[in-house]
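Give me structure tokens for this 245-residue protein.
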Amino acid sequence: MNYPQEHIKPYGTEGEKSRQVEQMFNNIAPAYDRLNHILSFGMDRYWRWRAISCLKREAPASILDVATGTGDFALLAYRKLKPASLIGIDISEGMLEVGQKKVIEKGWGKNIFLKKEDCTALSFDGNTFEAITVAFGIRNFEDLNKGLSEMYRVLDKGGKLVILEFATPDKFPMNILFKIYSTVFMPFIGRILSKDAHAYSYLPETIAVFPKGNAMKAILLNTGFKRTNVYALTGGICMLYVATK
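Here you go.
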């Protein structure tokens, strides 16, 4: 099954989506962290904390952070959970370079390993990780079903998949406010700070059509996950999904 966001590309219809997404994030990598904090009004820190809290009881010894970007989620997960190993993967070398600098600055180079990898064709053996996390990257997958299937494969039995993703709120007035924010404010600020006119127009487009709530829960269950919980954060602007293999 195909999903609408899979057909939305940052730079036009020609070429693979994954290649365009890689180029986009390479372009915006230097400004990405600053933009995240500004565009979310600092709420992105709280959302990451909520997601990591879902793994506190299990205290996973091995974590895979998919679409790790500049490593913010990976760094916070390591600080809060202290796993024996944490691997962050991303298709953008530019984002990984920024993340690697942070890892070195923290002195966690022996515990956090960042590498370039395609989430739809993971190189890891099955049942490898006790937890997998994806923060604000899953809607960029070129093939959502394949990406979820790969994460299911490498997740250990009983392990948890934790996903954070933006969503369009359903209830008034948040739905109206978010529409104005995502179609006017986000592209305007993104264009000024990132110097990429396409990136912050592409992102709201994918948010608007990405499966959310019960629709995303059904997709996770169809992938094979047993228990899946859905939490709407900040009026439904951000969705938190917790699924168990």
